[in-house]
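Minimal example, chain plus adenosine-5'-diphosphate.
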Amino acid sequence: MNLELLDQLPTPACLLDADTAEYVQVNQLWQEAIGYPHLSAGSQAELEITNGSAHKKCLALARNLVRIANKHYWLVTAYDVSKYQQQIREQQQEKQQIEEQLVECSTTLQIVNELLKDRADAQYKIMQRLRRNRQFLQRFIASSPCILYIYDLERQEYVYINQDSLTRLGYDSLKVTSIDKLVHPEDIVVLTKHYAKCRQLKPNDTLVVEYRLVKADKTFRWYRSYDAVFEVFNQQVVQIVGVAIDITEQKLAEITLAYSEQKNRAILRAIPDLILRLRADGTCIECLPPSPPHNFRIIQNHLREVLEPEELQKHLQAIARALQEKKLQVCEQKVIKQGRVCEEEVYIVAVSEHEVLEIVRDISDRQAAIRTKMELAKQKEITELQRRFFAMLSHEFRTPLATILASAQLLQVSHQHWLDEKAIRNLKRIELCVVDALELLENMMTINRADAGGLQVKKSVYNLRSFTDEVIDALASDRQIVTNYPITFDDYEGWIDPFLMRRVLVNLLNNALKYSAPETVVTVNLLVSYKQDQAIWQITDQGIGIAPEDVDHIFTLGWRGQNAAQVRGSGLGLAVVQACLTAMGGTIAVNSKLGVGTTFTVVVPIAEC
Ligand code: ADP
């Protein structure tokens, strides 16, 4: 190579001595680009030379061994590589960025990877849990004593019912879809209404209904259903999910309880008392009146509704005592009912710390009865006094009357030759009046004794015909009395009380004579039934008779027939007859026709007692 050629090279170049590595020659471009740097002949490194100016250049050096004039030189050429350097730098930057991105991506990928792994784990766990839940649910449904179902409100049928419950009811699951097959006929309406309501169900609401389900063996059981929304279409509930619990035992207990409560209430209402549950201040918790009709005022809220302030005070004090002493308290109170003052007796017993049970009894009638009894006793006392006074008086009258009668009869007998007719008539009248008065006294004394329960029966044996004749003969009457005795009657005897029997016959005969015209006949029939140990007297007259409406009253003391006003009388005779017959165990019957006549039939036992 020619040394001059160095300047012709288009790139900075220099020649170095191959042995010493010293500059032999540099070209113009080298000088411009590098100046005179100190380079060793072996240097191939990239040089970065600052030539004094501000800009940086990057040069690459290439070394070639050349021989010039038998001498070896290093030809070093420099190439401006700053442009490539820049590219390299940029590429390196890019590479670095890519690397950084890669690192970033791989980190992200790692995170994503982690996440995916976590997610897969979670999903696996969820799947596991779901599987467990499903198993649990299946076991739960299988072992559940309840009926679980889904009911389609549109199609009106069960779309699902758990198999076991249907088996328990005795059904083949496939056959039961409609409520008609399952539900008790009486409850179908209830359930239909319930399902209609279910259409309006809100998502979190539950509707409850009770009904009976018919088992395959035709017996039934009570169920309570809780229904909730299962599916909604067009804002309408179309399917519900429900659980039905068997409440038969509870229902039976309820029914039994209700029945026994009803029974207890019926018993309580059968008691003719008012039952009250009250608080200490008189507030009414419950007011149970007896079955109507009753005479109690119903208390709505408080005792003051029925009690005057004074009575209320008394009652509240009794309640306080019952609560404090825990002992039965009895008090009496006055209540105004329908404008009438009624008396009540109240039994109060404490049932808790603040509550009492009361039985209120209307004792108005009892109190009235006690008062009446007391009045009666008083009346009886007065009557007894009167009776004794009257007995005493009768006795006092009888002696002088008997004396007058005896005197009048004696006068008639002993002085009949020189007494004129008028005097005899007067004596006769005296005799009749005295006999009447004595009869009246006798009747009064008999009824007096009967009232006092003192009509004693003292029987003796009598010839009944003679006895009757004697009674008739003793009557102070001129009238003829026809007697009819059985032909073989002469010896017939019977056990009778002569005093009582005389009273009976005398009063009946006197009435027959009194209530018939003097020209008519009075008949006495006497019959004896030895078979029945009875004597029967029949006294018949042809007098004024007794009005049918009077017949039932004629034996009442002091009562006189409406057609008897013209005849003298006191209404005492038949009452005496009745009292005497009752004492003797006899009976009397009357048969009468107005204006035709009357027959009294007396039956008296004549057996020895
Ligand atoms: P009294 O004859 O004094 O009125 P009694 O007690 O003897 O009372 O009789 C009651 C009533 O029965 C009489 O008032 C009379 O109306 C009716 N009576 C009784 N006996 C007869 C009779 N033989 N004929 C018609 N009425 C009679």
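Residues 507, 511-512, 515, 541, 543-546, 554, 560-561, 564, 569-575, 598 surround adenosine-5'-diphosphate (CB under 6 Å). The longest helix spans residues 82-143.
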